[in-house]
Every structure is written in structure tokens, then in C-alpha cells.
Inverse folding.
């Protein structure tokens, strides 16, 4: 969830700041970068008449500029070699670590700079005759108010189920959706066509027409640095990330028979009794994607507008299916009830499996938790409820492909 890993309260969150700046993300890991119009020029040093060095120092953010990129800010030298570079946060003396390129032709920070921060950078160089030159630049990076970031999921380097979409949540409303979408490319080693779909002005999901092919590699190329997303707001992300699709696991919950069949790579590997929602609190139908996993979580009915119906501090083996609060989880408090699992629905809309307090015994709930990935699909059928909304969680599979494509702002990836 890297801006990464953001997803994770009882509701979606990673999802993770993306990855992100700590989100995409997620967290979670933000892949941030930035750029404003004012940092397009170059600052130059080494032209003092008193100097005779042929070396010329060039800063990517000119002296006095604002809106500088947090990704592409550094130093280069022409007709010479850099001999020293020091970059600090202005007014604090805090040094910014960086590295010289092989041969001493350039220098750049080791990590992304902070948004809305003033920096000082001083550099020295010498030409082929050993004659020295020095220069400095003081600049400010693009502000948070004038930039946007996207928290994205899944996290870079993870292995997920076949139903896992790529989902971006932006921290600003995007008016130029075409510009933003055209600078995000999602591709799969399977060769599947991938299309983006906008849910409102701040969420952009990508998926193929059918589930990802098991074992495929998916790559996300994010090139939003300096991209105008809305009036006075530019992107600050520049990164390539990716994830692996694991084996195919699709589990089907039948509310009529109160059973769940787990299919692995198309073959049923287990059938277990379950308990869906009661007649008063029915369970959504449809294709739902596991978006978060919790070995233990508190479930409080007040967070889903059900007053004081329940407050269980230690629900075991819980996995989120919707943003609105649907989970598939272990249930230890119902084990002694009548009728037992597999007879009738008794939950407040979740799908319950037999478990024990602490979730450590060999139970159906523990088995399913241990054998599930974020991104696995759980299908509910024959419930008297409606089909889950495509944007309630990571559940865009419930939208017809032609409608999905119609919500794209710029073709396919």
C-alpha cells in the first residue's frame, strides 16, 4: 500500500502510500518527484572574469528558483571534473547525501528531496589544466500545495493473486485525466491488454479484461514529474515498480448451500462450511478481491453504522473484501452455536469460517488465511443482496469490459 502502503486501517488503505511517499504506496513507498515551470532553466557558475578555468558548473535548479524537481535536481560540469559537492537544507546545515558519477561529470542526491523545502548546493570543479572554479545555487522545491502524489497498490516487489488491480489514489483532484493517465503505463509479461479506468477525480485503476495470467510479471512505469494534473498542480512521481502474479486461486461462496469451494489453478482443492450474512444483514454478491490480511483485528459495529451490534477485539484470520467493511474471517464465538457452520447465514454481512480464539489451531479459517494472497478472488453468489459496487474495494471486475474501457482517459497500456 508505497507513496506506498497506505491501505491499512480496517479499510483499504497500500493501501500504502502507492507506496507511497510512504504511499503507491505505499505503502506505504511514494515514488515522488516533482517539477514546476520555474525550475526548467539552468544555473551556471564559473564565468567570473577573474577565473580562467574552462570548466563550467551547471545546476539543474537555477539560483533563486522555486518549484524545483525533487527527483531531477543535481549538478553537472562541462569541460572539466567535479571535485566537490555539498548540498544542505537551507538554514539548518543538515547535509543531503549524494554521489558523484563515475568520471566526476555529475552529482545527484541519493534520495528524493522533500517538497516545499529550501536547499543550498555548492560545487567545485577543475578543468584539464587543473584550474579550479566554484559555484552555488539556492533554490526551493515544489510545494505540497502545488503538487500531487498518488498512493498506489500493490507494493513493489510483492507477489499477489490474479485479481489484484493496480490502483492509484491521488491526493488532489485531477482535472486533466488524460495527461495523468498517459504518463502511467502498466504492462504484463503475459501480453494482456491493460486499460485504466477512473473512479471519480482521484482514483485510477488498471486491469486486463480477464484476471492476470498466473506467473506473469506486471510492470508499472510512472512518469508524472512535472505533469500538470490540474490548474497550478503538477505531479511529483517518477519511478518504475512491479509485482509478480502468483498461482491462480478463486474461491466461490454459495449463500444457498453455505459452503465455499476453493479452486487452485482451476482445480477444487477444498470445500468448507461457512456462514454468510443473516436475512437482516445480507452479504454482497459479486467478485471481491482480498485487499488486506490481518492475523487479528478489532471489529466494531460502530465503524460501519450498525450502532452497538458487536465489538470484538480479536477477530482472527481476517481478510478485507470491501472498503465498506466486508471481510472473510475466522469466527470462534459462533462455534458453539446452533445451527453450526454450513446451515444458515448469521453474520452482519461478512463471510465467517470456523476458528478458535487466537487463530492458532488447525481450522478452516486458519487454513484459508495461510493459503491466501492479497489479490486472490472471492466470489459470492446466490445472496439476496445486490452486487458489490466496482469501486467498493478493489472490485472493478464487477464492471463490464466495455464500460471499463469507456471510463478510460487515454487508451490502453
Amino acid at each position: 500500500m508505497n507513496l506506498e502502503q497506505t491501505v491499512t486501517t480496517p479499510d483499504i488503505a497500500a493501501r500504502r502510500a502507492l507506496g507511497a511517499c510512504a504511499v503507491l504506496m505505499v505503502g506505504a513507498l511514494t515514488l515522488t518527484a516533482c517539477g514546476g515551470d520555474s525550475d526548467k532553466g539552468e544555473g551556471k557558475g564559473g564565468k567570473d572574469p577573474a577565473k580562467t578555468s574552462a570548466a563550467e558548473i551547471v545546476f539543474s535548479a537555477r539560483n533563486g528558483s522555486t518549484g524545483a524537481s525533487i527527483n531531477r535536481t543535481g549538478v553537472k560540469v562541462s569541460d572539466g571534473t567535479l571535485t566537490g559537492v555539498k548540498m544542505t537544507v537551507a538554514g539548518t546545515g543538515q547535509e543531503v547525501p549524494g554521489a558523484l558519477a563515475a568520471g566526476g561529470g555529475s552529482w545527484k542526491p541519493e534520495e528524493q528531496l522533500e517538497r516545499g523545502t529550501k536547499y543550498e548546493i555548492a560545487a567545485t570543479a577543475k578543468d584539464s589544466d587543473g584550474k579550479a572554479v566554484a559555484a552555488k545555487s539556492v533554490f526551493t522545491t515544489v510545494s505540497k500545495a502545488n503538487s500531487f502524489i498518488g498512493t498506489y497498490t500493490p507494493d513493489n516487489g510483492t507477489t499477489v493473486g490474479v485479481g489484484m488491480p493496480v490502483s492509484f489514489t491521488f491526493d488532489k483532484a485531477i482535472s486533466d485525466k488524460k495527461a495523468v493517465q498517459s504518463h502511467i503505463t502498466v504492462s504484463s509479461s503475459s501480453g494482456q491488454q491493460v486499460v485504466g479506468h477512473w473512479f471519480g477525480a482521484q482514483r485510477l485503476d488498471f486491469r486486463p479484461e480477464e484476471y492476470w495470467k498466473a506467473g506473469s510479471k506486471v510492470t508499472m512505469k510512472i512518469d508524472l514529474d512535472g505533469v500538470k494534473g490540474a490548474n497550478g498542480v503538477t505531479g511529483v512521481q517518477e519511478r518504475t515498480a512491479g509485482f509478480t502474479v502468483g498461482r491462480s486461486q478463486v474461491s466461490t461462496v454459495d449463500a444457498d448451500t453455505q459452503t465455499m469451494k476453493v479452486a487452485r489453478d482451476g482445480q477444487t482443492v477444498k470445500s468448507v462450511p461457512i456462514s454468510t450474512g443473516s436475512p437482516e444483514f445480507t452479504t454482497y454478491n459479486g467478485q471481491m478481491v482480498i485487499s488486506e490480511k490481518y492475523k487479528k483485528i478489532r471489529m466494531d459495529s460502530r465503524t460501519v453504522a450498525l450502532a452497538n451490534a458487536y465489538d470484538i477485539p480479536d477477530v482472527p484470520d481476517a481478510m478485507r473484501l470491501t472498503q465498506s467493511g466486508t471481510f472473510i474471517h475466522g469466527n470462534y464465538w459462533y462455534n458453539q452455536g446452533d445451527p453450526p457452520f454450513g446451515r444458515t447465514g448469521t453474520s452482519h454481512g461478512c463471510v465467517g469460517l470456523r476458528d478458535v480464539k487466537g487463530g492458532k489451531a488447525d481450522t478452516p479459517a486458519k487454513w484459508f488465511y495461510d493459503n491466501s494472497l492479497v489479490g486472490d478472488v472471492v466470489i459470492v453468489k446466490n445472496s439476496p443482496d445486490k452486487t458489490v459496487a466496482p469501486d467498493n474495494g478493489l472490485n472493478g471486475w464487477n464492471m463490464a469490459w466495455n464500460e471499463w474501457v469507456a471510463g478510460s482517459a487515454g487508451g490502453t497500456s
